[in-house]
Every structure is written in structure tokens, then in C-alpha cells.
Amino acid sequence: MASFLPLLISTGVLAAVMGLLALLAVRVRRRGLVGSAMGAALASYDEAFRATAHASYYEIRAQADRQAPMASPDDAWRPVNARPPARRAQGPRSPGRAFLRWWRRG
User: Fold this and answer.
1) Which of 17, 56, 77, 83 sits 20 to 30 Å CA-CA off 49?
2) Model pTM greater than 0.70?
3) 84-88, long-range: CB within 8 Å, 24+ apart, which pairs?
4) Distances from the Cα of 13 to the Cαs of 8, 20, 26, 45, 83, in angstroms?
């Protein structure tokens, strides 16, 4: 049994490191901090193992490359710094949800 202890510890450490790297990859991709090389590497991984994620990647890239349509000269004029409509008052929030919002916002 004692001979398996180093193997068990090594396997546990490897699993922990891989889990942390996976969480880091999710967080970096969610925040949009992925550089072009990392984005391409993750896209090739998605292409090989998750075909639907690969198709979504190219759709998101196409949406990002599209330009917003310009307003027609015949449209009604709106000021650029117009105030958005007021938001409705919301009820109290739980502290656990606040932490999740903070984590997602990154």
C-alpha cells in the first residue's frame, strides 16, 4: 500500500492542476482576454473534439466582424447621449448571488 502512495499523490496533483487550468480557460474566454494565438489553439481543440462549439466560434467571429448599419438620412434624429429609460426598482438580493455576479463579471 505504501508503494502506491506516491502514485496517488502525483495523480491527485495532476488532476488538481488540470482542473485549475480548465477553470482558468473558461474564465479567460468568458472575459474576452484570449489572445489571437490562444483563441486559435482553443478553436482547433473545439474543431477536433466539439464540432458544435467550433461552428459557434466561427459564428461569433462573423458577428463580431459585422459592422453596425448606419442610420439613413431620412431617419428621425436622436441625440447620441440620450438617457436610457429608468430601471424599475428591484427587491433585495441574496449575498450568494452577488458573489456569482461578481465572478461572472470578472
Assistant:
1) 17
2) no
3) none
4) 9, 11, 20, 24, 53
